[in-house]
Design goal:
With 330 residues, the protein is an alpha/beta fold. Helices cover 43% and strands 19% of the residues. It has one domain: Ribonuclease Z/Hydroxyacylglutathione hydrolase-like (Metallo-beta-lactamase, Chain A, 4-Layer Sandwich). The N terminus is likely disordered.
């Protein structure tokens, strides 16, 4: 009897604290509520993010991901011309993945490095085409250690002595990997910590750790100049749900998205960048720049409110996937 009453008491306390969420997540239409919240937030700004995260994310088995890098696509499928995009930011990415060169008074900070098979042509070749010297890349920030972003890190380290900045858990995953680096691994270098500033000359990139996509995923904040006018960027370092599909993993992902939303808001970021062109439409936007007339807004400059909506898309799609997982576990 005593135990029964106590359990009942706990149940009431539990419902009192969590009742709303609990009932909402159990409701048959809970998934749809999250999906439509995501759809509303995406609007016309983030259709690729919505499509990838909300429409058909496949559940991922609960095993450690250690796979060989994807084999090279035909060059036509990925090759993109490099371009100057801001006074101090150059696109050296592919049609599918972004790599950015942030120029400073003391050299270049490179953000992400594509695959091993295309980093030489896009990054080294692209920098040279733009009149920039790849040997001036002092720091390379890798958002996470998947083969489509870390592929050129070893080349930059070995050839130019660039310092490589990455999250600790992702350095660990490189060291443990058996299949991921058939052509050799970058050597552990700078382990990024939350709030750290990677400073070069007149420019600083603030690291925000956002575990979720991988345990060591890094996002960042920095300032660009558009015809001399400063504009703040929130760079999201990991987006898709290709981590093992568990409720705790989704919780980690969701809390990182909230963290980055808040960091973006407090830094007045009006640009949202990502490392896959499908999430921020970087490839078409870089091409659209050619049509920009003097005085027109920059195609990347979406405004603060849109940047906040991006993080609503990622959070609501993650909530939908998490809810599905909980419902299917019943
Ligand atoms: Zn990834």
């Amino acid at each position: 009897m005593n135990m029964h009453v106590r359990n009942l008491g706990n149940a009431f306390i539990f419902l009192g604290l969590y009742g709303t969420t609990l009932f909402a997540e159990n409701a048959p239409d809970a998934v749809d509520i999250h999906l439509s919240a995501a759809r509303n937030a995406a609007g016309f700004d983030f259709p690729g993010t919505l499509a990838r995260l909300c429409v058909a994310p496949e559940p991922v088995p609960n095993t450690v991901r250690d796979v060989a890098p994807a084999s090279a696509l035909a060059r036509d499928a990925w090759f993109a011309e490099p371009a100057k995009v801001f006074d101090n930011l150059y696109f050296v990415g592919s049609k599918i993945h972004s790599s950015w060169a942030l120029t400073t008074t003391e050299g270049i900070i490179l953000i992400d490095t594509l695959f091993t098979y295309n980093s030489e042509e896009e990054i080294v070749g692209g920098l040279k085409k733009l009149g920039l010297d790849p040997a001036k890349v002092k720091y390379v920030i890798i958002t996470h250690a998947h083969s489509d972003h870390v592929g050129g890190a070893k080349m930059m380290q070995d050839r130019y002595g660039s310092r490589i900045v990455m999250g600790g858990p992702d350095w660990d995953s490189i060291e443990k990997s058996v299949y991921g680096y058939p052509l050799g691994k970058p050597k552990r270098d700078i382990v990024a910590i939350d709030g750290q500033k990677v400073t070069l000359g007149d420019t600083a990139v603030t690291i925000i750790t956002t575990p979720g996509h991988t345990p060591g995923t890094l996002s960042m904040l920095f300032t660009l100049k558009d015809n001399g006018k400063p504009i703040n960027v929130a760079y999201s370092g990991g987006t898709a749900f290709n981590f093992p599909s568990t409720v705790p993993n989704f919780d980690i992902y969701i809390s990182s998205q909230s963290k980055m939303r808040d960091a973006a808001a407090s830094s007045n970021a009006t640009i949202l960048m990502s490392n896959h062109t499908e999430f921020d439409s970087a490839y078409p936007k870089v091409r659209m720049l050619a049509l920009r007339k003097p005085g027109e807004p920059h195609p990347f400059d979406l405004g603060k409110e849109a940047v906040a909506r991006y993080f609503t898309v990622t959070r609501e799609c993650a909530q939908a996937a998490r809810t599905k997982l909980m419902q299917s576990a019943k």
